[in-house]
Amino acid sequence: MRFNGTSIAATCLGVIFTLDRPVFSATAPSKPNIIVILADDLGYGDLGCYGATKIKTPNVDRLAAEGLRFTQAYAPSSTCTPSRFSLLTGEYAWRQKDRKNSILDGDAPLCIEPGRLTLPKMLHQAGYQTGIVGKWHLGLGDGKTPVDFNKEIMPGPLEVGFDYCYIIPATVDRVPNVWIENHKIVSLDPTDPITVSYVTNISDDPTGLEHPELLKQKADKQHSGTIINGISRIGFMKGGKAARFRDEELSTTVVNQSVKFIEQHKDAPFFLEAALFEPHVPRVAKPSLVGSSECGVRGDVIQQIDWETGQIMKALERLNLETNTLVILSSDNGAILFDGYYDHSFEDLNGHQPTGGLRGWKYLVFEGGCRVPLIARWPEQFKPHVTDQMFNLVDLLATFAGITGQCVPKEIAPDSMNLSSLLLETTTNQLRDNTVLHGLSDTLALRLGDWKYIPLNANIKATGMGKGADGSENRFAANHITKPMLFNLATDPGEKTNLISKFPAKAAELQQRLEVIKNQKLP
Asked: What CATH number should be reported for the domain holding residue 321?
């Protein structure tokens, strides 16, 4: 059962609900503007403030030096769509039985039910103007009829709480490679309509499979569909030549549209999700940043993240908004090197450690796939420091509700915890003691305190072209958990020693706790 946010708000009496208990929210000095800068596939060790030395990130490092830097923060999933679903809904994506929020294609239907209370809808009800710029990847359309990209495209972000959007439908490596502003494709020529398919090659354009000699970056079979800007994509696209984006200009567009949104709403509280594309594949840096790092193109596009962050912060300073703006920077999952394109990301590491020495990569439930950088800066409210508080991006909904004095019943956002007291500095207690981590093939793991349990996983699924990562591929062999694992992250953050035979009772405790969370009955 889902509830309309407005009707529920009338019965909450100012109470914020967490996983276990209602908590009265602390009162912030004023409603801050809120900006979430969400990177794509950024690793725990990819930033200077998290130990990187071959990649320079002075703007992000300044955020960390002037704010909170979390060392125990997690993405809800080690893949993009499920994490973004959880961030906006306050609900673990794996709870969705129909699994329509797995890694989505560009023509997939909207995976968030219009009408449910979401993070942007909650903030809109609190008087905020809400916007998203950049990557969407949560589907478009109602699923009853195929998306027609030549007409009004809905439902989408505007139907789940955003007042404004300037997005690409899915990932940069998936068709259609266009920008959508609100309900319409930007710069679409009606005499050159767009057709998209993830099954049949309906395009007049060459494909990577047929013409690899045309490619700027060689790609695997899944990423060898229609060639656009010298890069082959997942799927096939016909038409829309005037509307197609240029990869080298993506970061500039994100900055320009984000700054435009900030300028338009500088006199009222606003919420902006700046959903960056980097360092997701295909990795293409703007000309001025090509060769700027010591780690090849992947390092270059991480420094591009830093440039984008710096431009947004400059806009806040210019408009005198930086003091009462809460800026949060994080990533939708952990790092990956090869992910379909042969761009020398591994060969050019030059000693850099994208996961900061943690085990595993994107797609996996090991720490390297799920633990992410998380930085929060709000000069009006808190002093700079480093915290080992556990935080999951699923907590943003209830936490922002706590900061803005809104109420979110447990049945609406069952997995989101109100951790606003961390940002309001009214507690030093450890508020979240556990988090569930989700990976490829619906692999789940539980962290409880310092302990982490990964159950056996025999549910390895094979998927077709464009349907996300294929769990049966050899490169995902680490996702096949042939025996349960137990780690103590306090002494073994790299998850090197399986302690299950030494502490069987602890493993049983975590296994039981995971089952309880999995089987939690939602209204």
From this structure: 3.40.720.10
Q: Which two tokens stand for residue 190?
A: 């009606």
Is 442 in the same domain as 418?
A: no
Average pLDDT over residues 27-37: 81
Neighbours of 503 (CB within 10 A): 14
Do 386 and 278 lie in one domain? The reply is: yes
Give the mean model confidence (pLDDT) for residues 462-477. 62
> How many Cα neighbours within 13 Å face the side chain of 51?
13
Beta bridge partners of 272: 35, 131
Determine the pLDDT at residue 28: 46
* Cα–Cα distance, 516 to 520 (Å, whole number): 6
Same domain assignment for residues 467 and 328 = no
Rounded-to-integer distance, Cα 224 and Cα 71, Å: 38
Farthest CA pair distance, the chain = 69
The Cα 166–Cα 153 span in angstroms is: 13
Q: What share of the chain is helix, strand, coil (3-state, %, to 5)?
A: 25, 20, 55
Express each pLDDT in 268-298 by its tens digit.
999 999 999 999 999 999 999 999 999 999 9
Residues β-bridged to residue 392 = 74
Residue 19, pLDDT above cutoff 50: no
- Give how far Cα 73 sits from Cα of 166, 274, 355, 368, 392, Å: 28, 19, 13, 12, 6
Q: Of 312, 266, 370, 384, which is closest to residue 133 (Cα–Cα)? A: 312
Phi, psi dihedrals of residue 396, rounded to the nearest 5°: -65, -35
Pick the closest to residue 16 from 412, 433, 325, 376 (CA basis).
Answer: 412
**Tokens matching residue 13:** 């009496």
Higher pLDDT, 175 or 470: 175
**Does pLDDT of 232 surpass 70?**
yes
Q: Find the mean pLDDT for residues 70-78.
A: 98
Provide the pairing of β-strand 325-331 with 33-39: parallel
